Amino acid sequence: MSVTQLARKQVQALTPYQSARRIGGQGHIWLNANEAADSGEYQLDCSRLNRYPECQPPQVVNAYAAYAGVGPDHILVTRGGDEGIELLIRTFCEPGQDNIVLCSPTYGMYAISAETNGVGIIDVPLNSERQPDFDGIIAKLDNAKIVFLCSPNNPTGDLVDSKGLCRLLEAAEGRALVVVDEAYIEFCPEFSQASLLADYPQLVLIRTLSKAFGLAGLRCGFTLANPEVIGLLLKVIAPYPIPEPVAQIAAQALSEQGLATMRARVADINQLKASLAEQLRQHAQVKEVFAPNGNYLLVRFRQGAALFSRMAKAGIILRDFASRPGLADCIRITIGNQAEMDAVLDVLQQEQ
Q: How many CB atoms lie within 10 A of CB 214?
C-alpha cells in the first residue's frame, strides 16, 4: 500500500483550495488576493519569545471586543478567519453524518473545510439577485448543522439581506448555526450583523485583520458568538494558536491609533474603488461591474480570458473566476494603490 493510499479517502480525492499564492503567476502588480497595498509599522518586544503564548491573549480579546461592541466572552481569536471556519465544522458537525449549507458562488474554504473533515455539503446557489435563497436554505435545515453566508460575499461583493437573515435565524433556532463571514465588513461597517448577536444565540460572525487592517501576513482572525459557542470552540482549538508576535501586532492594530490608520486606509480604498468602478462601467469591454462592497471589484468582461491574459503579460496578476457557476468572463480586481489602478486601466485601454 502506498503512502497516498494510507491517507483518508476524502483527502485522496480532495482538490485543495486554490489560494492566490498557490496559483501564483509572474508579475509585479499583485491584485489577486484582496490584500491591502500597505501594512503599517509595528514594534516587537522579544523578551517573552522563550515562553509559550496565551491561548487567548487578553490584550487582543479585550481590544477586539471593544472595537466590535461585544463582551470579551463573545470573542475567540484564531489563526485567520479560516481557523474559525474549521473549528466550527470540527466542533458542531459529526463526520460522515452531518452537512453544511453554502451558497455558491462564495468563498471556497467552507467546502474545503467540510470535505477534509468528512462533512457533507449542501449547495443552495444564490438566486437571480445574488441573494441567498432563504426559502431553499430553510427547507434544508433538517439536514444541516451549519449554514455559511458571506457578507460582503467573496467574490460577488453582495450583502446579505438583513430581513432574510433574521427569518433564517428564527427558523434555525435549536436546529443549526448560521455563520455570517464578515471578512470585508470594514469597507461597509454599517451593514454588519453584530447587533443581532444578542438576540440570536445561533448566530456566529467571522472577522479578520487580513483585509482592512492590512495584516494578511499576520494570520489573525476572530469568531464572534455567544459565550456558549465560544466555550465549545475553546475545547477544540489548539493550546497555543496565537504566537506572541501576532498578539503584539494585533493589539497595536486595535489601538486607538491603529483603528484610525485602518479607517483612513478604508476611506482611501473606497475612494479608489468608486473611481475604478465608474471608469469600468463606461468601458466598451466591460459588461458588468458587480456590487462594490469589499476591497475588490468583480467585473464581467466581454472577453474575460483574453483580458486576463493581457493583464498577466503586463505583469498584473488578477483572479479569474470564469470557472465558477454564473461567473463566465468574470475577473476579480483587488483595489490596490492609485498607481496599480492606473496600470489596470492602461492595459484595458490598449488595443487587443
A: 21
Q: Say what the pTM is.
A: 0.94
Q: How far is 76 from 18, CA to CA, in rounded Å?
A: 26
DSSP secondary-structure letter at 88? H
At 170-213, the pLDDT tens digits run 999 999 999 999 999 999 999 999 999 999 999 999 999 999 99
pLDDT in tens, 265-293: 999 999 999 999 999 999 999 999 999 99
- Using CA atoms, how far apart are residues 206 and 96, in angstroms rounded to an integer? 25
DSSP state of 240: S
Residue with cell 470585508: 184
**Residues forming beta bridges with residue 121, ordered by sequence position:** 100
| Angle, alpha carbons 192-198-201 (nearest 5°) | 100
Alpha helix (H) ranges present in the chain? 3-6, 9-12, 20-23, 58-68, 80-92, 109-116, 134-139, 162-172, 227-236, 244-253, 256-281, 304-313, 338-349
Instruction: Give the separation between CA 216 and CA 176, rounded to whole angstroms.
Output: 30
β-strands 319-320, 330-334 pairing: antiparallel
Residues 6+ apart with CB under 8 A from 168: 132, 134, 137, 138, 147, 178
The rounded Cα 262 to chain-centroid distance in angstroms is 17
Residues linked to residue 29 through DSSP beta bridges, in sequence order: 316
Cβ atoms within 10 Å, residue 226: 18
**The C-alpha cell of 63 is what?**
481590544
